[in-house]
Amino acid sequence: LGELVGLALRAVTTCPMELNLRPASVLRRQQLEKRRPFLAAAAACVILLLLGWGIFFVRAAQVTRGSIEQLQPKIGTMRAAERKFEPLRRQTAALDKMATPLIAAVNERGYWVELLEDLNTRLPAADIWVTELIPLSGGRPVGVDEKRLSESGSNPVITATAATSTSKAPRSTGTVDAVLVRGLYMFNPKQEQLVVDYFRNLIGSPLFAVNASDQSRVIKSTIPNNTEWAFPYELHLDLRKPLTLLP
Questions:
Q1: CB 218 within 8 A of CB 201
Q2: 212 vs 157: which has the higher pLDDT
């Protein structure tokens, strides 16, 4: 009766020693039997989830096909109207392409006035003048003979040269990306430092892309002497916003 006595002791009080002689395979089978309901429920949930997604997509496809069938007559009518608008769209695009240069010219008609005003505002107060302004495109003069650009500044002509010059130079196309400013500075206590002051005043200009480290590239001035009263200088100034030239 050892088994019965052991079970009775386990049921009545705490047994100091318990022995379980069941094999490991039996224990695994019993544990699996306990988990089987949960595994079955999880599998059922997965199947229901897949079934729900399948029903959803089938229903969505049916609704989509029904909507397309209802909208198809309207789509056909709208496509016919679109074909009527296509020639007008092409005509509008052609007119826009033709008007774009003219609109740009109108918008930029005050640009040169602003540029001259900026140059004049930043000019030192005395002993220095701007005598010539030459637009440049890729380093080449616009509307001015190239020989004029290569002339020495020792005896500059005191005129304002604009992009619409009436000289016989060939008309350039592209963009005006820089201007060449020529002028004179009088014999003064600062001498050529006056040109450097003008260069520094142009730094931060909203129209000219002037960098303080480009002083040697931008400025070209002559050394004063005791035989002349004024001395030429040149400033090569890049524009922040290049101007498109009309053909």
A1: no
A2: 212
Q: DSSP labels for 53-81?
A: HHHHHHHHHHHHHHHHHHHHHHHHHHHHH
Under the phi-then-psi rule, with left for phi > 0, alpha for psi from -120 to 50, and beta for the rest, what region is 204? left
The tens digit of pLDDT for each residue in 50-87 reads 999 999 999 999 999 888 888 888 888 888 888 888 88
**191 alpha-carbon distance from chain centroid:** 44
Residue, of 3 and 32, whose pLDDT is higher: 32
How far is the C-alpha of 143 from the C-alpha of 146, rounded, in Å? 9
Which segments within 67-224 are labelled E, that is strand?
Answer: 128-137, 140-141, 174-186, 219-221
Type of residue numbered 66: G
User: For residue 135, what is the DSSP state?
Assistant: E
- Sole residue written with tokens 């916003």: 241
pLDDT in tens, 128-187: 889 888 888 888 888 776 665 565 444 333 333 333 333 444 444 578 889 899 898 888
The residues near 169 (Cβ < 8 Å, ≥ 6 apart) are 141, 143, 144, 145, 146
Helix, strand, coil shares of the chain, percent, nearest 5, are 50, 20, 30
CA–CA gap between residue 107 and residue 240 (Å, rounded)? 16
Question: What Å distances lie between residue 206 and 7, 69, 118, CA to CA?
Answer: 101, 60, 9
Beta-sheet strands, E only, within 30-144:
128-137, 140-141
CA–CA distance, 151 with 228 (Å, rounded to integer): 19
